[in-house]
Amino acid sequence: MPDRSATDLGTAEQGTPGQGTPGQGTPGQGTQIGGVAALRVLHRICRVYAVAGLAVPVFGFATASSLGVLRDAWVIASVLLTGAAAGILALAVLPHQEAVLARLTAGDSTPADAVGGVARLAMLTGVFNLLWAAVTVLMIVRPGSTTGV
Fold first, then answer.
1. Which pLDDT value is given to residue 31?
2. How many Å apart are CA 47 and CA 49, to the nearest integer?
3. Closest C-alpha among 115, 110, 75 to residue 96
4. DSSP 63-128
5. Nearest-10 Cα torsion for 117, 118, 124, 125
6. Is the Cβ–Cβ distance between 127 and 88 less than 8 Å?
7. What is the pLDDT averaged over residues 26-42?
8. Which pTM was predicted?
9. Angstrom distances, CA of residue 105 to CA of 65, 114, 143
10. Which residues contact 121 (CB under 8 A, 6 or more apart)?
11. Between residues 53 and 111, which one has the greater pLDDT?
12. Residue 68: CB partners within 8 Å, gap ≥ 6?
């Protein structure tokens, strides 16, 4: 067996010093377990981000109201794009993350089995990010704005 570093193994496959074997389990199992732990942390971050992101429309409406631009096209477009991004996050990204995690933690599938789910998750996450990028551009450029702010 080739020598692998502890960072490559995760925590489950690190053997006790002095033992003849580096751990019990199949090769790569430690990496999979460490990867699942990292995925859990990232999923938790996404859930917290989703809840904290609820403040964005509140502050957005307050700012637009104070500037008197609630009926401007760029604000309406930003609101619609923000709603679409929130919908994708809540209805697609978070559930797909949970499904991939469930598949990997069930023990009956390998990371290769989850590739289809991961590819779809990557696509949905990319769409979510593009929507937020478009909102950011609209907020900075403010096409047609006459407020001078």
1. 54
2. 5
3. 115
4. HHHHHT-TTSHHHHHHHHHHHHHHHHIIIIIHHHHHHHHHHHHSSS--TTTTHHHHHHHHHHHHHH
5. 150
6. yes
7. 69
8. 0.70
9. 47, 11, 48
10. 93, 96, 97, 100
11. 53
12. 147
Which residue in the block uniquely carries the two structure tokens 């999979």?
A: 32
Better-predicted residue by pLDDT, 14 or 140: 140
Distance CA 117, CA 114 (A): 5
Token reading at 121 = 């998750």
The model's pLDDT over 68-108, given as tens digits with 9 standing for 90+, comes to 889 999 999 999 999 999 999 999 999 999 988 888 787 65
Who contacts 99 (Cβ-Cβ below 8 Å, separation ≥6)? Answer: 117
Which of 57, 118, 56, 130 lies closest to 93, judged by CA? 118
Q: Which residue has the tokens 């989850």?
A: 114
List the structure tokens of 78.
């930003």
pLDDT at 148: 64
